[in-house]
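Ticket #4471: structure export looks truncated?
Reporter: QA, pipeline team
Priority: medium

Steps to reproduce: submit the single chain below to the structure queue and open the exported record.
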Amino acid sequence: MTTAMNASTKKKAAKRAVSPATYAIDATDRTLGRVASEAAHALLGKRMAQFTKERVLPVKVVITNADKLHLSERRTAGKVYLRYTGYPGGQRATTMAELIAKKGVAEVIRKTVDGMIPRNRLRKERMKRLTIKD
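Actual output as written to the record:
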């Protein structure tokens, strides 16, 4: 006599079967958007066969050679990051050049990848799995 597995048992078995993966991305002479979109795609787990959108898969993404990323002068001077303090008149603007001078290219990549990850409860956990090396 055979026993049939119901849907919840199959889901539990699938959750246990995921093995950790690490993706290395070399940013040498590549544009910011292409590196960031590749990293976001991997962080979401879409490169794995066990992809499900409602959970974080054990994927780590390492971006190397961040200093060698291709950034045009027009982009670094023209791109403006806005934030709001919550007070009247509290909108603050920072250009990409100021952000690079203050926090480095790694922060620019982190902000770009963060903008490509869905805004839900899993976002913080997914972003913890991103490592950027200069």
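Status: closed, not a bug. The export was complete when the record was re-opened. Leaving a note from the reviewer for reference: Helices lie at 7-16, 32-43, 73-78, 96-103, 105-116, 123-128.
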